[in-house]
Amino acid sequence: MPAYAVIGAQWGDEGKGKVVDYLAGKAHCVARYAGGNNAGHTVVNEDGEFTLHLVPSGILRPQVTPVIGNGVVVDPDVLLGELKGLSDRGVDVHRLAVSDRAHVVMPYHVRLDSLEEKARGSKAIGTTGTGIGPAYMDKASRIGVRVGDLLDPEYLRGRLDPVIDFKNALMTKVYGADPIPADEVLEKCFAWGNDLKPYVRQTELVVQDSLARGEGVLLEGAQGTLLDLDHGTYPYVTSSNPSIGGACTGLGLSPREITGVTGVFKAYSTRVGGGPLTAEMEEDTAGLLREKAWEYGVTTGRARRIGWFDAVAGRYSATLNGFTSLVLTRLDVLDGFPSIKVCVGYDLDGQAVDRFPTSLATLEKCRPIYEEMPGWDGQTASATDMSQLPPEATAYVNRIEELIGCPIHLVSTGPRRWETIVKKPVL
Ligand code: GDP
């Protein structure tokens, strides 16, 4: 098993945490390549429930070297807090490698994130307010701070002084907010440098060396393909590339090393914040599902919007990422629904469309074309074999496979590791 990517195929929150944790049993290295602590993965294993925002889910497997790659933006307070929480629960965190080239989420990024979102008023993107977008903006503007810079106080001071002046001018003159004292920011950075030093590595070498030894490397995606900065429903997107290209740039990895790409789909759709969700359910049904499945954000606690499975968006995601296998999660959530809709096409001004439109204006005009399938009386919850599924649930799984055009290898029937049906081994 060389490099194998696990990618959110919808709008995030598909259950990648569980899938990565499950597959990490066979890996030596689990590398996160994009996003920041705006992501949230929940892993349930024999030691209880773990919620992770920055640390790769692979940390819960003792043989794994977890890596935070250069494509991730790191809020050191969040990372150090998460490491302490894990360490307090007996997890060995010293294996973690953090890229010296990952960008740092600075205190002014967090402040500006909220100020900018507030200024957008009714056009708010629905950011998590954690400073991720502003940190990626500074990376692209070449005024960002990298984790490696935190280890060099002199260099950092020279680099940061003009940046802090500029950020303070922005905060006070544009947004009418208070400035952040430069000394406070610098002190914080020096303290972060000390605390993070043991973890900082040239992580592309960690990944490349692991591959050279013939070990298995899992590439852990965050968020989902339809939130991709380039390929998602812009501007309602995240500030990084959760799709497969992000794995190469975000880790310093050749695409030739990637031998498998698995797409993680929920058995229905959810989305946090604004932006199109063509197959959105009526609120009555959505409300039932939201409460049953506790569809609230791990990071923000916000209620997720709920939709039926959207095969048009799903096929787009599959083609973009080149999925070689699929994982279908949360099938158990649909237990007890009398009938289940699947969005098989879009109606655009009376024309049937089966390709995902790239313009927001077009997408907003699309109406779902549904196929209705019978629900099931029995339960899929905790099933570990396809033979345990009611026939209607099997038909639903088969139909999704057919509509996406890629084989489903795993079906997840509950949050715990063992609540998994292996139709075909993924790795
Ligand atoms: P991620 O961001 O893609 O990792 O997804 P999250 O971790 O935010 O959300 C997934 C949630 O669903 C977590 O609470 C998981 O424990 C839970 N989960 C994962 N797979 C299943 C499943 O098959 N059934 C149910 N009921 N919950 C699941």
Short description:
The chain has 427 residues and is an alpha/beta fold. Helices cover 32% and strands 21% of the residues.
Give the helix/strand layout:
Elements: E1 3-8, H1 16-23, E2 29-32, E3 41-45, E4 48-52, E5 65-68, E6 73-74, H2 76-88, E7 97-99, E8 103-104, H3 107-119, H4 132-140, H5 153-174, H6 182-196, E9 200-201, H7 203-212, E10 217-220, H8 244-249, E11 258-266, E12 269-271, H9 283-293, E13 305-307, E14 309-310, H10 311-321, E15 325-329, E16 339-348, E17 351-353, H11 360-365, E18 367-374, H12 391-404, E19 408-412, E20 420-422
Parallel strand pairs: 1-10, 1-11, 2-5, 2-10, 5-7, 6-8, 7-9, 11-15, 14-16, 15-19
Antiparallel strand pairs: 3-4, 12-13, 16-17, 16-18, 19-20
The structure holds guanosine-5'-diphosphate (GDP).
Guanosine-5'-diphosphate binds next to helix 1 and strand 3.
Report on the structure:
The protein is of the alpha/beta class and 427 residues long. The protein has three domains: 3-102 and 199-262, Adenylosuccinate Synthetase, subunit A, domain 1 (Adenylosuccinate Synthetase, Chain A, domain 1), CATH 3.40.440; 103-196, Orthogonal Bundle (Adenylosuccinate Synthetase, subunit A, domain 2), CATH 1.10.300.10; 265-422, Alpha-Beta Complex (Adenylosuccinate Synthetase, Chain A, domain 3), CATH 3.90.170.10. The chain has helices at 16-23, 76-88, 107-119, 132-140, 153-174, 182-196, 203-212, 244-249, 283-293, 311-321, 360-365, 391-404; strands at 3-8, 29-32, 41-45, 48-52, 65-68, 73-74, 97-99, 103-104, 200-201, 217-220, 258-266, 269-271, 305-307, 309-310, 325-329, 339-348, 351-353, 367-374, 408-412, 420-422. A ten-stranded mixed β-sheet has the order 9-7-5-2-10-1-11-15-19-20, with helices on both faces. A hairpin with a 7-residue loop joins β19 and β20 (420-422). α3 crosses α4 and α3 packs parallel to α5. The radius of gyration is 22 Å and the shape is globular. It starts with a strand and ends in a 5-residue tail after the last strand. Guanosine-5'-diphosphate binds at residues 8, 12-18, 39-42, 44, 298, 329-330, 332-333, 412-415.
